[in-house]
Design brief:
about 750 residues, alpha/beta, Rossmann fold, seven-stranded mixed beta sheet, 44 strands, about 15% helix, globular
Length: about 750
């Protein structure tokens, strides 16, 4: 063999063995990257006999893995009696086939004590506030997982909140109430496990990102999954049976002490039922003997931040309460897509979409709940209750915007009577948004109210018993397009009926601190604590806050960092509620300590009611009105302007007549231009004067008010000279505010401004 041949053979040999070496190294590195150190809990003292408390041994294994940088905690076949198990980062809790984690009874005091929340527990149930009193919990960890084909049996967990607003309810310290509770964790995987009897929540995840839940079975009597303030999550191939509560629910509570959106959640290929607890395990599927069955998919109720970019596809519902989408706590619900859903034996409403103003959260937040861009398609449901098939209800002045319904076929029992057409269906308002409480609706197929943008195509409704209601009722619905509606109706009953409510009244309110209100809420009379029909748009100079949306009136003030207060206008609105007994609207712009005349240097933060000012409250008011008008019912009528201001102008009192006349002229002219209604150039205006004891009440300003009323028959003055004040000698006290409010209302009646 020549040198060249020997060299070639050597080269070939080196390449051969070098390649093998490289491949070995590659495989070795790959293996090394995927090798997980196993920590068998039996090596740490666990017995798995169902008698010995094994959670201390499991936690010891977790601590050992944590010190080593992570690993898999292996639970071989057996029954592990446990209290709290504390997961750590880079830990996989693996439940082998034949393994059961059995929740210890509260008498064993084996659960961790609830953590100190430190504020706002009143804004959510205790189940959303406390996590450490759980069977398995983690907080602030990353890359954690619970896997395997084993079971978690929450036999010893309570079904109740263990704590609410800091008070023990469901048991003493040592009581566990959740199977799995994860808070502010990242990269979470839960796969293949089964949860039976999950306590108050089977799985609750709050503020968790980048998570996967797959092939999980939950069979329990309270909530199955609670996904709260989470983002970037997929839930697939799960089976959830929850006869007495929600199966799969997305929430946005105040548990993180601020409103946080629940967003970017994709759910697919799940089966949801409400049969007797244990049905998924024993295959019996016996109906639960309760007054109503839940077992549904829901957004809500806790909704401080809201929900965005949510999809639910390819799911089945059996013996459940269907779909519920509820935004009631001043958050937003938007970009929701639901498709390819089948339901059978549906209790109450197959599809329920609502906004409200329960507003369980900080009282200084005044924005309304909103909902928009909801798309539901390819839904089939049979054996539905007779109350209604689809409900979509917003709020007066804050409609749900852009709802698409397509290719939906609903078959239900029927039996609605003709008198239901005229039923006064309750406004959601501050009510708890449970559809069963609303009862029968005026329509049997689709009932929509306070909606702007409703697009329905290919809807089919069928019933077993005779129906005397219209198929569709539209109540304060704008921009409607309904096509290919297949829905029978009784003789003489319209297929689609539009409800007219007559004129919607609007009240404008403006001024400074007494129009804003400074009476402490602790002195709020009982009759002023709850409003049903008054909807408010509230501004205080900030153009960006002029959204045009309305929310149910509650006494509050614009001034930051002071206790929420009330003023005379709350009395006016209550009187109008009692008179009208239907929704009306208030557009209010107030700021304490503000003047009209720009020479008054003490005017608050440089804001003035002058149109020429760079920071013009008048311009802000007009801007707010412009944003509000599109949200009013089409047949609205602006009744009057309530005005209480002038204390800030005492140093320019001689010019107050002309200044205020200009303000009123601007408002009237603006309304004429924006509405096209010439009548608003004579808009009634009601002024309030000041107490004789006021340290800023100028007689010259008061005289100007009376002169304006003399010169303009559409201007009226309410006298406040004799009314009592708070100790600040500036603002009306509770008695003074109540009397002044009644005088304003009486003037409105006497002048035929309201009827």
């Amino acid at each position: 063999m020549n040198k060249i041949s020997k060299f070639g053979e050597l080269l070939r040999t080196n390449i051969k063995y070098g390649t093998l070496l490289f491949l070995c190294l590659l495989c070795s590195n790959s293996y090394a990257q995927n090798v997980v150190t196993l920590y068998n809990v039996l090596d740490y003292g666990a017995k798995g006999d169902g008698i010995t408390l094994d959670s201390p041994a499991i936690n010891a294994a977790i601590e050992a893995a944590d010190k080593a940088g992570g690993g898999q905690i292996l639970l071989p076949a057996g029954t592990y009696l446990c209290g709290s198990i504390r997961l750590k980062s880079n830990i996989d809790l693996h439940l082998s086939a034949g393994c059961t984690i059995l929740a210890a009874d509260a008498s064993m005091k084996a659960y961790d004590e609830s953590e100190s929340f430190g504020g706002f527990p009143e804004y959510q149930d205790g189940g959303h506030t406390y996590f450490h009193n759980s069977l398995i919990w983690a907080e602030g960890e990353k890359n954690i997982s619970i896997t395997g084909h084993g079971m978690i049996d929450g036999k010893g967990l309570t079904h109740k909140d263990t704590e609410k607003a800091g008070k023990v309810l469901g048991g003493s310290i040592g009581t566990g109430d959740k199977a799995i509770a994860l808070k502010e964790c990242r990269q979470v995987t839960i796969r293949d496990i089964t949860i039976y009897r999950g306590g108050h929540f089977g799985i609750i995840m709050t503020g968790c990102d980048l998570s996967t839940i797959d092939n999980v079975t939950i069979d329990t009597n309270r909530d199955g999954f609670d996904i709260d303030c989470c983002k970037y999550m997929t839930i697939t191939n799960c089976r959830i049976n929850t006869p007495r509560d929600d199966a799969l629910v997305l929430k946005s509570s105040y548990a993180l002490k601020k409103p946080v959106l629940c967003e970017h959640i994709a759910i697919s290929n799940c089966n949801i039922t409400g049969y007797k607890c244990g049905s998924l395990l024993d295959g019996t599927y016996i109906p639960e003997p309760v007054g109503w069955v839940c077992g549904r998919f829901k957004l809500g109720t806790e909704s401080n931040g809201g929900y965005r970019n949510i999809s639910l596809t390819n799911c089945t519902f059996m013996y459940s309460s269907g779909l519920a989408f509820e935004e009631v706590d001043q958050g937003r619900m938007e970009n929701i897509v639901v498709s390819n859903i089948t339901m059978s034996h549906v209790h109450h409403y197959p599809i329920y979409i609502t906004t409200g103003c329960r507003n369980r959260g900080p009282k200084n937040v005044t924005r309304p709940s909103t909902a928009r861009d909801i798309q539901i398609s390819n839904v089939v449901a049979d054996d539905c209750d007779s109350l209604c098939s689809i409900i979509v209800t917003g709020m007066p002045g804050a409609p749900i915007r852009n709802v698409w319904l397509s290719n939906i076929r609903l078959f239900f029992k029927g039996g609605g009577t003709r008198d239901l057409v005229n039923k006064d269906y309750r406004e959601q308002g501050t009510n708890y948004p449970e559809p069963k409480f609303a009862g029968w609706t005026p329509a049997y197929g689709l009932y929509a109210r306070h909606v702007d943008g409703l697009y329905a195509d290919n809807l089919t409704f069928r019933y077993e018993r005779k129906e005397e209601r219209p198929a569709v009722v539209l109540d304060d619905v704008k921009n409607v397009n309904i096509s290919n509606l297949n829905a029978p109706t009784a003789d003489g009953v319209s297929q689609v009926q539009t409800i007219e409510h007559g004129e919607a009244a609007v009240i404008l309110t403006a001024g400074q601190s007494n129009a804003d209100g400074r009476v402490p809420l602790s002195e709020l009379p009982e009759e002023l604590k709850t409003y049903r029909y008054c909807y408010l748009s509230y501004g205080s100079g900030n153009f960006e806050n002029a959204t045009g949306e309305f929310s149910l009136f509650t006494p509050r003030v614009a001034k930051p960092k002071i206790e929420d207060s009330w003023g005379f206008d709350a009395v006016v609105y209550k009187q109008l509620e009692n008179l009208w007994q239907k929704p009306f609207y208030v557009i209010k712009q107030t700021m304490g300590g503000t003047a009209i005349d720009t020479s008054c240097e003490q005017s608050t933060n440089g804001w003035f009611w002058s149109y020429e000012s760079d920071k013009s409250l008048l311009k802000a008011f007009e801007h707010q009105i412009d944003d509000c008008l599109p949200n009013l019912p089409q047949n609205y009528d602006i009744k009057c302007l309530i005005w209480h201001q002038g204390e800030g102008d005492q140093n320019a009192a001689d010019r107050y007549y002309d200044n205020l006349k200009t303000v009123i002229s601007h408002i009237r002219q603006h309304l004429v231009e924006k509405t096209g209604q010439k009548k608003y150039d004579k808009l009634p205006v009601i002024f309030g004067t000041f107490s004789k004891d006021s340290r800023q009440g100028s007689p010259v300003v008061a005289e100007a008010l009376h002169r304006l009323a003399h010169d303009d028959k559409n201007i009226h003055v309410v006298e406040a000279n004799d009314l009592s004040l708070l100790r600040d000698k500036l603002h009306f006290d509770a008695q003074g505010a109540q009397i002044l409010g009644k005088r304003f209302y009486e003037t409105m009646k006497q002048q035929n401004i309201v009827r």
